[in-house]
Specification:
With 568 residues, the chain is of the alpha+beta class. Helix content is 35%, strand content 29%. It contains 15 helices and 24 strands. Strand 13, helix 8 and strand 14 form a beta-alpha-beta unit. The two termini are 42 Å apart.
């Protein structure tokens, strides 16, 4: 019987479990999961695994850390290079003919695995998935592995020595080029070869060939181009997007034509634009409101609620606003974003609600596209593509979205702006809830999309999200409460829908990975079409039988007029 041991350590290096936890390890070639129960562990920063396989080898497939709330950190599988930084004692790791393995050379071998510092609560646990084996196969694999390991170490050493030589040469060359003699000679060379003699290319080439003793390529006679800087690349990208906008945005003539077509609409519903305001600088607030006033579809109302701003300039600006289609309310108590948005919705009279931040801008045909979609498709929820707009009015970073994708919405609020809901749908899904402040719109989208399938994506840039230091459009950390609020909204959604799953961090800020639990043991049918080639078919079937970790499967072979007797 083999025993695997696991030690856990905090950020200060102190052991969290003493003595180390132990689990029985089956001596077999199959993948097996060892679960170590830690209890209430507190912050954890590293793990030390003693595989207990004696002299042998093992594969490390998966490592996960969590508690009663779910998985907090996981690697499944390990990405290339992630295992290179481990602290190994009594074992070596690398690639061999049997794949990525650890070869154990001593009885008490161990590997130390650093983790991002993770705060674990009650019911803390660690899961390690590995397999191990010993015997003749191991001896052959180990010999191959160690031979390959020695060869690679020799190559690395040779390359390291060569790199050292090149670094010495580079330092010496840099010293020469910094000398006065070199700078003077370089000046004269450029003056004579590249300036004076450039008027006679044939003479220039003959002189260079004579001094160098070899033919001179054209690249020597042509000054090298500098690699573009980050600023230059960004300028090119912005110019390319500006050209795209010029081709696809409606110009003034097209806007006039679109406005004339509104007369043919059977329905011209009132659309209420909902805009909570808090301490926004008047210049951005004015641009946002002006973009609403500039809409070619004119059956709208703007519902503005000031969430008890402390900025005198914001309050003075709002107090001066006068427009027949604007409603303004000043709150005496700060209700935060969800509460202020609900107050603005209470003032709304429209059949549809459109949500807008107090510093962003709408495209002039935004409400026209909404009204056209209502006439064509009668959707309950609509959303458009968007881009970002900086403080100089430059549009960048377009976000072209897919049609409605429920799985993507469980990973990220890709809908964001510009979003319009039927009022009756909001009443059924709302109101916005203050416990999700910072991600209140995400929580609303998750609830609303459960109540309707009449969801329409408008593939046009209708919304321009302002880039400022106060906004997550420029800085993902501008609202530190947002990720936590989004996670709570997602957790509540999974509970509401009865989905058993773990919520893991995604590969970008404000993204999640929902890893669903497998319920039961459903049968998986693997269909393999083939035509002769029994040697390929044998490899295919054997790989399934030997490597599959799912046991409840069947293999269905479909012969496409095979003729070779050995196939059968």
């Amino acid at each position: 019987m083999l025993i695997a041991r696991l030690g856990c350590f905090g950020p200060d290096g102190a052991a969290l479990c003493n003595p180390p936890l132990e689990r029985r390890l089956e001596l077999q070639g199959e993948r097996q999961c060892l679960r170590f129960e830690l209890g209430a562990a507190g912050p954890i920063a590293s793990l030390e695994l003693h595989p207990g396989v004696g002299e042998g080898f093992f594969h490390l497939y998966r490592l996960a850390v969590g508690d009663s709330r779910g998985v907090h950190w996981e690697r499944d599988p390990f990405m290339p290079g992630e295992l290179d930084g481990l602290q190994l004692s009594g074992m070596v790791h690398g690639q061999s003919v049997i794949g990525e393995v650890f070869s154990v050379l001593e009885t008490d071998a161990s590997l130390r695995i650093p983790l991002p510092v993770t705060e674990l609560g009650t019911g803390a646990w660690v899961e390690v998935e590995l397999d191990c084996a010993r015997g003749a196969d191991f001896l052959i694999a180990r010999d191959n592995f160690l031979r390959e390991h020695a060869r690679l170490r020799e190559q690395v050493q040779t390359q390291a020595e060569r790199i050292l030589e090149l670094e010495v040469d580079a330092r010496e060359l840099a010293m020469v080029r910094r000398s006065r003699v070199w700078r003077a000679a370089e000046f004269l060379r450029r003056l004579i070869y590249l300036k004076l003699l450039s008027v006679v290319p044939s003479l220039q080439r003959r002189l260079l060939s004579a001094t160098r003793g070899e033919p001179v390529p054209d690249a020597v006679l042509t000054p090298a181009r500098k690699a573009p800087t980050v600023e230059e690349l960004r300028a090119r990208e912005h110019a390319a997007y500006a050209a795209w906008c010029a081709r696809h945005d409606r110009d003034q003539s097209a806007l006039r034509e679109a406005k004339r077509s509104i007369a043919s609409f059977a329905r011209k519903p009132l659309i209420s634009i909902i805009m909570p305001v808090y301490n926004m600088e008047p210049q951005w607030l004015e641009r946002a409101i002006d973009s609403v006033k500039a809409q070619i579809y004119d059956n709208w109302e703007l519902c503005v609620v000031d969430d008890s701003s402390r900025s005198e300039s914001t309050l003075r600006f709002l107090a001066r606003l006068r427009h027949p289609r604007m409603k303004i309310r000043f709150l005496k108590k700060n209700l935060n974003i969800a509460g202020a948005t609900n107050e603005a919705i209470d003032m709304a009279s429209g059949e549809y609600l459109g949500f807008m931040d107090n510093d962003d801008e709408l495209a002039p045909d935004a409400l026209f596209e909404i009204a056209r979609a209502i006439n064509d498709l009668d959707p309950d929820l609509m959303y458009s593509d968007e881009d970002f707009i900086d403080t100089d009015g430059k549009r960048v970073n377009p976000h072209f979205k897919p049609d409605f994708s429920p799985d993507l919405l469980l990973s990220h609020n890709y809908i964001t702006h510009f979003c319009v809901l039927r009022r009756s749908l909001f009443d059924a899904a709302g109101p916005l809830q203050t416990q999700y402040d910072g991600a209140q719109d995400y929580a609303l989208m998750l609830r609303a999309t459960e109540l309707t399938r009449k969801i329409h994506h408008i593939p046009r840039i209708l919304y321009h999200w302002r880039m400022g230091e106060w906004s997550t459009s420029q800085d993902a950390d501008a609202k530190p409460e947002a990720p936590g609020a989004a996670r709570r909204a997602l957790e509540d959604t999974l509970k509401r829908r009865g989905i058993a799953a773990d919520i893991l961090p995604g590969n970008s800020p404000h993204f999640f990975r929902v890893r669903r639990h497998i319920v039961g043991e459903p049968l998986v049918s693997i269909i393999i079409p083939f035509r002769d080639k029994p040697e390929l078919l044998r490899v295919c079937v054997d790989s399934i039988l030997q490597k599959s970790t799912w046991k409840n499967f069947e293999i269905v072979g479909v012969s496409n007029a095979s003729e070779a007797p050995e196939t059968f």
